[in-house]
Amino acid sequence: AQASQPRRRRRPQTARHADNITRREEILAIAAHRFAQHGFEPTTVREIAKEAEIHSGGIYHHFLPKEDMLDEIIRAPLLSLTARAMAIFHGPADVETRLTAMFLLYLDHIKQHKSAHLLLFNERRFLRKHERFAYFADSQRSLFDAWLKLLEAGRADGLFRDDLNAFVTVTMILRMTNAIAEWFEDDSSYYTYITG
Questions:
Q1: Closest-CA residue to 54 (of 33, 81, 29, 27)
Q2: Which residues of 142-168 are buried (b: 16+ CB within 10 A; e: fewer)?
Q3: Alpha-carbon dihedral angle through residues 15, 20, 22, 26, given to the nearest 10 degrees
Q4: Cα(173)–Cα(152) distance, integer angstroms
Q5: Which SS3 state, helix, strand or coil, does residue 146 take?
């Protein structure tokens, strides 16, 4: 009788799943960096695949349209930032403490999600045009309104001059945080010193 061929052992499903997650996160990290540095629309799937050292078709095993990658890169960080900001805004602390907490929150967001933060600013026009990113406009309105009301409350409490233009000040604050994201490099020791 012909000797039977030894069976090939199947790779456990859990191991395959773990590898897929690792590869997916690697592709997302590469995409986030390229989108932030070169822009979402100019960046091609081919460029992302080349940097990830896979065939372009391999990208579509994890993501279908390129917008899926952008959505996954920005959604969780933005919604987390918004939720944390709303918690500070509605918190019991005095206005000065809440304003300080908001600044530190934005610095922490840049530290944790630099590419996402840059994309939220640099791609704001693109995001506003597409229905699937409607949460972006909703979050931006909530964040701007929270900053505005805190500054107005601070003006009423005598923290700021009576002629403070809260709208212009919020706009400057948000542009300043976006400028910080452009040159920020993670220095955990300095960040720990600043934030305590």
A1: 27
A2: ebeebbeebbbbbbeeeebeeeeebee
A3: 160
A4: 14
A5: helix
DSSP state of 159: S
Give which of 6, 22, 5, 195 is closest to 109, Cα–Cα: 195
Q: What is the number of other CB atoms lying within 10 angstroms of the CB of residue 105? A: 16
Q: What percent of the chain has pLDDT over 70?
A: 80
**Of the candidates 48, 76, 51, 71, the residue with the CA atom closest to the CA atom of residue 60:** 48
**Whole-structure pTM value:** 0.77
Q: Which residue has the tokens 């592709």?
A: 27
Rounded-to-integer distance, Cα 80 and Cα 11, Å: 36
CA dihedral 59, 64, 65, 68 (to 10 degrees): -90
DSSP state string for 33-87: HHHHHH-TTT--HHHHHHHHTS-HHHHTTT-SSHHHHHHHHHHHHHHHHHHHHHH
pLDDT in tens, 45-89: 889 888 988 877 777 777 778 899 999 999 999 999 999 999 999
Give the tens place of pLDDT for each residue, 115-132: 999 999 999 999 999 999
Instruction: Please give the Cα distance from 157 to 96 (Å, whole number).
Output: 10
